[in-house]
Known about the structure:
A: mainly alpha; B: mainly alpha; 2 domains; globular
Amino acid sequence: xxxxxxxxxxxxxxxxxxxxxxxxxxxxxxxxxxxxxxxxxxxxxxxxxxxxxxxxxxxxxxxxxxxxxxxxxxxxxxxxxxxxxxxxxxxxxxxxxxxxxxxxxxxxxxxxxxxxxxxxxxxxxxxxxxxxxxxxxxxxxxxxxxxxxxxxxxxxxxxxxxxxxxxxxxxxxxxxxxxxxxxxxxxxxxxxxxxxxxxxxxxxxxxxxxxxxxxxxxxxxxxxxxxxxxxxxxxxxxxxxxxxxxxxxxxxxxxxxxxxxxxxxxxxxxxxxxxxxxxxxxxxxxxxxxxxxxxxxxxxxxxxxxxxxxxxxxxxxxxxxxxxxxxxxxxxxxxxxxxxxxxxxxxxxxxxxxxxxxxxxxxxxxxxxxxxxxxxxxxxxxxxxxxxxxx
Amino acid sequence: xxxxxxxxxxxxxxxxxxxxxxxxxxxxxxxxxxxxxxxxxxxxxxxxxxxxxxxxxxxxxxxxxxxxxxxxxxxxxxxxxxxxxxxxxxxxxxxxxxxxxxxxxxxxxxxxxxxxxxxxxxxxxxxxxxxxxxxxxxxxxxxxxxxxxxxxxxxxxxxxxxxxxxx
Lengths: 391, 167
């Protein structure tokens, strides 16, 4: 019974594919998997937009959307109809071909990333030997589409936003990759399926998730920071800072193309949360051994939505950074910490079992974290604001 | 040669021609990313997952962006509106590209005799590549790393010098 609930989508797929002649079955199975991804994640995107608007509303002491449907939960449908029926404006001076290709390219590349995420036991579209590398390759390609959007609009706000976005994404991609390398070192595989399987063990009923180790916890924090920056979310949302750049690289987009950018951005958020879940939070494995009867896909999606809620919470709480603060933070703090974390993970690996490695590894990470913070902040002088470029 | 190979080869060659012949430099850079993607897909078609994904990660994700940045920072991205998609000096571009290709092709064909002749398709995993890089080829790897570090330090010094002048 529980086995069936766990594998319900696979059983459904096999049942549907069974109607076809044998030669077509494997191809049809893949097509059904793709349809599943294209149906589920935009559905989650719709839920996320409501969650975000209601949640931010609560944090800012207002109600949020409350007119369409009960408690405003039908708002995404209204939004979709609105963006589909709006006029699609292309500026006269814009580079029409590149302007058209940018949002399409973004959404396609972001969807490709979902192909290697294991969303449940046996539920992965392509079980690649180097799945993590594929994911990062797809993630890196989004930068090109953002540049295309900003440049082809022939608008200085768009171009500035694109430049900021690309600079930020390149800077934070390095810590993102280096914090994930620790997981690869410990698992000995780039396959996301194997990474989840390595975490799906229990001692005394508690899981072996990587976040519950000193190096895993440190890597998770840095991964979370880098992932927030990579998806251009607040507090790293300078590329679309509305007070200075209108809307950043998609200023000149309207109607459905704007909706595609919006979709791409939220899908990137869902996918990077999914990757974080897979790498650090045990993917589809249950948080307690006694809860193993709950279907694995429920755990995966709960963890993803929990990460999304944290991202929304952070957006409602923190102010936006300045460009130089953003770059300094990436190159002078997060990157050295990820490098140190690689060393600590190697130390952990070669110290063998026992409690000593817990103490030593945690002590090194904590001491360096506190020390680097102290030294870094000593040079900052907090006083009346001084202006460098304006009097 | 399968249909997939010819399809990918057509994409790569078309992208390369566009990169040489187009007038707008940013268009050329974007065409270059098409070439990089086509090459990566060719690697994947040859079952070289690591090479293919590394190609996308490094070339599409970083090198293409650097090229574009260099174009935008060194000269105006605005091109004159007077007609035509193709560059006025397309002939020279094509000749230079063909010459470089000929030299490279000649060198590759010459070196074929010196290589061991593999008959079976080697099945190389990412783990084996990693072991080779960290074991047998660690010295070339470190030399490349040193070279890149030197280049980066040089770039930082150039940038610092300019900042000092401004003050």
